[in-house]
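Dear support,

I submitted the protein below through the web form. The confirmation email said the job was done, but the results page showed an empty box. After a refresh the structure appeared. I'm attaching both so you can tell me whether what I see now is the final result or a partial one.
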Amino acid sequence: MDVIKTYGDILRRKAEKRPSAALKMFRFGFALEYQKATRFADRALPSGYREIYRAAVRKTAEILSDPSKSVWTNIFGPVEIFQCFDLNATSMEMLSGFMSGFRTEDYFIDRAEDAGIAPTLCSYHKHFIGAVEADIIPSPAYIAVTSAVCDGNINTMRYAAKKRGMPFFAVDVPHSDSEEAEKYLTGQLWEMIAELEQVTGRKFDADRLSETIRRENESKRLYASFVKEANRRCYPNTLTALTALLYPTHLSVGSEEALDLFRLLREDVEKYPEKECTRIMWVHLFPYYQETLKRYFNLSDQNYISVYDFAMDYMEEMDANDPVKAIARKMLRNIYNGDFSRKARMLTAMAEEFQPDGVIHYCHWGCKQSSGGVALLREAMSEKNFPMLVLDGDALDRRNDQDGQIRTRLEAFLEMIKNRRSVKR
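What the results page shows now:
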């Protein structure tokens, strides 16, 4: 019997008539997953990634259990500021991704479409909206989202805020990087801080934010060093572990916990010997459930995802002496902000730095910016002689999986890379 599927089927029935009971089942399921990640984790997965996954599961469980200390945002939100008010940041991507582990994503996606949401919207957004419609996700203390990268962020969260009668703040991130844009964005962040003071009843502590920025800078230095070492050693990973990496690199970046996780990664990678394998740079999202990709990349000693663009989307040193302005600058200069040609140039520079054998871009269903600009990235990579494979699918909704097509194209791509490496030798 497939225990997870059976559990998910019960969840669906509860969600239809007794949402509070369904929420309890989700909380219980996360508690079990945390125990599994703690006591029965696959020891083939390095301790660094085991701890990152465990931390991400624990934080999601805490957010569902104590929503009064949480804030809904997106992965490009100003999470450093939220930490100054002791608010745990979560995103629709994180919540939807972890909840889909119970194989209930089709129910919540259909629920959103039944409520009038367009079928062409990103499945992460539809899942989140469906869970809000079903009254499964408990309301947070605050909702704040940025316009960066995804044009659906603000509309989705505004919809959720209106549905729940919640305070909502939209941060408009200009596409251009200029002094005027930086001043405009910094002003918005100060407005949000003033609103957070009213919502939480706490005063903003600029010194605390400066300390958060200093930890973030150290975390990035550690992670950059880790990636360089892991690139030589093929430090084993999985699609799920790499997805969970967005927790310390984004949703908790700057926290003491995140810094400890990066220290662990950097220390642990030294235990692995140097190894030859096919190194892949991955662009955009991971369909963590996809069978062919799991078979070829999960804990593989042959094919290694050495660079993940989301995890390194902003690696510049931040000015801890002017922390709010530093966060504004981080948003403006993120790889994913601005037109796609800028992203293509920056990702190509990343490839030149780490020298992968090939690049894989996963075009997630409903994500217009990735699908619309992928031709520019392919051209930029071709000019620098990096072979690139574009895979289409759905990172969340298993019904849109195209396993046969992915298997055929991936196998041909990896074989081509292998032949190229043989010629170079």
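Response: this is the final, complete result; the empty box was a page-load delay. The CA atoms of residues 318 and 326 lie 6 Å apart.
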